């Protein structure tokens, strides 16, 4: 499954925008408020049209991630706030080598949404029929990891503490299906990896295909040399093991490592559940789409430089969409993998590929003078203003001079902690008799 093109009309902050994508990795950058999270939500919404039909997911109107909600409508403030309609999302995609196009629209405030997507719905029905007939057809993986993925407690977590709830889940038709791999896949707050392991270990249902797929993915990715993860019933927690054989309770790892280990394990688990016929190679061979909001979340810069290549190597058939503010991640990208929401045109690879951090910060992320901190910049501008005021003092009246002295004192007061800077400017002032 690959998304080739996405067109947005009146979706949140996007009046009209067409995006074209790389087959494997797409990194979205832009100032705060330019729509990075909205972009990921749009991808999730258009995919949900297909996934909800494929897995026969039923949600109420306000939780249905395949429907355009009131909060998705672009708002314009004139004399009052106005909703801009219609809202439309249009997608071109390839799923299992089949070229598909579909859209979801909302034409007014009362009609929630109209799907012009018969071909995608029919294809979802076709795939579901193949699965129900026990045919080994590859299902596309879909997952969305939001900024709250580390600390959010899933709504199902509390239920998993209840033995009866566990028993009900164990016997549910969904749990017995390959479609279990779509559980909360588009809930960007969800992080179910602890629940996956707890459920299987508690009932002795550790799959011969599930765990090897996770181990293979972690071994390929080698996140800080952690290569194995398992659930310890005595600790009631996940435990990880490193290349040198050392073990550590998962919750004691740094936030950055926890994020990456949990995400890689969760993707691999979903791949193994969706495509058990791929066995230990499920993570490597499963196609699909993964959305990651703030890929650099809690990651040390040395990991930021390699995280994109690590994910591409571990999941070569997954198409990733990730947002970031990290110059190190941008530096690691290849041609066609960077989308700048501040720039309507595709950024040429020679603007970021193999460039130094200062160049990327200034020319791609539009931060002036990145080799100087903001305080230094303010001090330089203050000194320039100070000298201009001294130059103008020659033609000033006594009243104007008194006012000027007060303005000069106010100007340099914020930098009184820098003794040399403060003294130098004051000496210049005294030399001019002020």
UniProtKB/TrEMBL annotation:
**SUPFAM superfamilies in the record:** P-loop containing nucleoside triphosphate hydrolases
Q: Which InterPro entries match?
A: ATPase_AAA_core (IPR003959), Bact_Antivir_Def_Nuclease (IPR051396), P-loop_NTPase (IPR027417), Rad50/SbcC_AAA (IPR038729)
Any one GO biological process: double-strand break repair
**In what residue span(s) does the ATPase AAA-type core domain sit?**
248-330
Top-level taxon of the source organism: Bacteria
Identify the stretch annotated as signal peptide in this record: none
Q: What is this protein called?
A: SMC domain protein
């Amino acid at each position: 499954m690959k998304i080739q093109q996405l067109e947005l009309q009146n979706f949140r902050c996007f009046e009209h925008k067409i995006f074209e994508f790389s087959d494997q990795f797409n990194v979205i950058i832009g100032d705060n408020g330019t729509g990075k999270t909205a972009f990921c939500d749009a991808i999730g919404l258009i995919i949900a049209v297909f996934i909800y039909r494929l897995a026969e997911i039923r949600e109420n109107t306000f939780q249905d991630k395949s429907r355009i909600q009131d909060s998705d409508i672009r708002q314009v403030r004139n004399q009052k706030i106005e909703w801009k309609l219609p809202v439309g999302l249009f997608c071109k995609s390839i799923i299992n080598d089949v070229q598909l196009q579909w859209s979801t629209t909302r034409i007014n405030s009362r009609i929630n949404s109209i799907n012009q997507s018969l071909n995608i719905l029919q294809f979802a029905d076709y795939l579901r029929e193949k699965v129900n007939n026990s045919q080994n057809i590859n299902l596309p993986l879909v997952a969305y990891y939001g900024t709250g993925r580390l600390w959010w407690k899933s709504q199902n977590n509390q239920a998993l503490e209840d033995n009866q709830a566990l028993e009900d889940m164990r016997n549910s038709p969904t749990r017995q299906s390959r479609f279990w791999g779509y559980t909360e896949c588009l809930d960007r707050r969800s992080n179910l990896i602890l629940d996956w392991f707890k459920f299987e270990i508690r009932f002795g249902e550790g799959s011969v295909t599930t765990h090897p797929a996770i181990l293979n993915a972690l071994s390929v990715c080698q996140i800080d040399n952690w290569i194995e993860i398992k659930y310890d019933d005595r600790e009631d927690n996940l435990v990880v093991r490193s290349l040198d054989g050392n073990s550590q309770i998962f919750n004691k790892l740094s936030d950055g490592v926890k994020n990456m280990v949990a995400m890689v394990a969760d993707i691999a688990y979903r791949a193994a559940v969706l495509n058990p016929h791929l066995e230990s190679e499920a993570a490597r061979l499963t196609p699909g789409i993964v959305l990651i909001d703030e890929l650099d979340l809690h990651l040390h810069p040395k990991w930021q430089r390699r995280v994109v290549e690590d994910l591409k190597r571990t999941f070569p058939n997954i198409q990733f969409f990730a947002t970031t503010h990290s110059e190190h991640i941008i530096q690691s990208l290849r041609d066609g993998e960077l989308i700048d929401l501040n720039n309507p045109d595709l950024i040429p690879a020679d603007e970021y590929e193999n460039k130094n951090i200062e160049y990327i910060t200034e020319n791609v992320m539009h931060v002036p003078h990145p080799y100087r901190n903001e305080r230094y910049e303010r001090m330089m501008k203050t000194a320039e203003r100070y000298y201009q005021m001294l130059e103008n003092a020659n033609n000033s009246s006594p009243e104007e001079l008194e006012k000027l002295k007060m303005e000069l004192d106010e100007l340099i007061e914020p930098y009184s902690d820098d003794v040399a800077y403060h003294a130098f400017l004051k000496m210049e002032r005294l030399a001019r008799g002020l």
